[in-house]
Amino acid sequence: MSKITRTVWGRQMAFCFRCGYSTFQWPTDRLETHEICGGVNRQKALKEPACWIRLCPDCHREVQGWSKEKQYALKMKFDEECANVDAFLAIWRPKATAQFRAEFAAVVGAIKEKI
Ligand SMILES: [Zn+2]
User: Fold this and answer.
1) Could you give the CA distance from residue 73 to residue 78 in angstroms, rounded to a whole number?
2) How far is the CA of 63 from the centre of ligand 1 (A)?
3) What are the φ/ψ torsions at residue 4 (nearest 5 degrees)?
4) How many CB atoms sit inside 10 A of residue 15's CB?
5) Which spans in 24-97 are helix H?
6) Nearest to 22 by CA among 10, 31, 35
7) How many whole angstroms from 64 Cα to the centroid of ligand 1?
8) The pLDDT of residue 53
9) What are the 10-residue block averages of pLDDT along the chain, 115 residues in total?
């Protein structure tokens, strides 16, 4: 099965994962796709649905300063279908130990329960 493209995924995700703004509100079409894993691995992240969250410009600026765990909690909460901690970590921290992966998933799960 081929992966969903960033453009198609973005069209399906018609709301901001942080504040709930939706494209059906005015002003329309303000949403942006954010790669949770930016920087040197951004090119890989552009093709991996497990790395994306959908945000309005205000929340996009805000979320850039969040920990990866907190960002990933938004992913888990609002896009369970494409959320995949292992696929995300394979790009963000390819050399992560099993312990690191388990701890990351546990922290993400704990934050998700509070948002
Ligand atoms: Zn927002």
Assistant:
1) 9
2) 9
3) -65, 145
4) 17
5) 42-45, 57-63, 68-78, 85-92
6) 31
7) 12
8) 98
9) 89 94 80 90 94 97 97 98 96 95 98 94
CA of 21 to the centre of ligand 1 (A): 6
* CA 50–ligand 1 middle distance (angstroms): 20
Under a CB-based contact definition with an 8 Å cutoff, are residues 9 and 19 in contact? Answer: no
Q: How far is the CA of 101 from the centre of ligand 1 (A)?
A: 28
**Residues written for the chain:** 115
Q: How far does the centroid of ligand 1 lie from the alpha carbon of residue 24, in Å? A: 13
Going by DSSP bridges, is the β-strand pair 32-35/52-55 parallel, antiparallel, or unpaired? Answer: antiparallel
Q: Which residue has the tokens 């691995």?
A: 41
Amino acid, res. 1: M
Q: Which of 59, 50, 100, 37 is nearest to 79 (CA)?
A: 50
Count CB atoms within 10 A of the CB of residue 80. 9
pTM as predicted: 0.93
pLDDT at 81: 96
Burial of 113 (0-12, 13-18, 19+ CB in 10 A): exposed
CB atoms under 10 Å from CB of 55, counted, come to 26
